[in-house]
Structures are given as structure tokens and as C-alpha cells.
Specification:
- By secondary structure, the protein is of the alpha/beta class.
- The protein has one domain: 2-Layer Sandwich (Nucleotidyltransferase, domain 5).
- The protein has six helices and five strands, in the order βββαβαβαααα.
- It has a five-stranded mixed beta sheet, sandwiched between helices.
- Helix 3 crosses helix 5 and helix 4 crosses helix 5.
- It is globular, with a radius of gyration of 14 Å.
- The protein starts with a strand and ends with a helix.
Length: 157
Amino acid sequence: MSSLLAVDVGLRTGLALYGRDGRLHWYRSRNFGNSTRLRGGVQAVLRETPDLECLVLEGGGPLAEIWTHEAQRRDVIVRTISAEDWRDSLLYPRQHRNGPQAKHSADIVARRIIAWSQARRPTSLRHDAAEAILIGLWGLVSIGWLKSLPAELHHEI
């Protein structure tokens, strides 16, 4: 089964893995600390996901290039987006007028996606993992794995 990995790029990185059915399989936050450890961590994450078909990155610069390079070596499709891309699609304007408000809204919507996907419920949910979950949902619709937002989520968002 093919999968899509969404990444909120940074040394503290949010990750969310979705299946082709549009359901969230897992999500996590990793603090790599520096770019050397990030490089090794990216290789490990991609090695642990052999059925990876698409990687959606929010962010750019040298850290995103590490993800892009490793994904392309594995013939994985890479999409790079900005926060505005997924926020404009998945949140109302009032939900992302500023950074803290957007992070709070992402947390609320991410928890709904977790519940809809029947994924493991978080004891705590860091904002980078919550944002990765929404980046992934945006990616699923963008590449056509989901034709639209699930009805169960559409009225919630």
C-alpha cells in the first residue's frame, strides 16, 4: 500500500504518515538538534517507510533540501509548500490571523483527523506534529488520493 509522508521541516520536525485510503497511520515530533543528525534521521525515516510514494514538505532552505535529496534518491515524489497553502485550504481566515492562533487551530483540527482516522490518540500533541497532520491532509487532496475533505471533517473544519 502506498503512503504519503508530511513533514513540517525544521530541526524540530513534525511528521505524519497517511495511507492511500486517506487515513492517518501515525504522527510524531522529532528533535534532531542539528543538520548532521537530521540527515541521518531523514535516512532512517525514509528507510522505515518502504512504500513511500509522496513526500509533502512545508518549508524550504537547506533542511528541506536534505529531505528532498534523500526522497529523490528513492524515487519519491516531493511537493514543497508554504504554511499559507494548507492554512488557506483547511482553516477559516479567522482561524489563522496570526501564528499562535494558527497553531491552536491546527491542534484542534489535527485531533479531529486523528479521531476520524482511528489513529492512536495523543497524550500530548506538539504543534509541529499537528501541523504535519494538516500538511498531509492538504497533500492527499492535492495529489488526488482524496477527492475532497472527508464529510466527517468538512463540517468540523
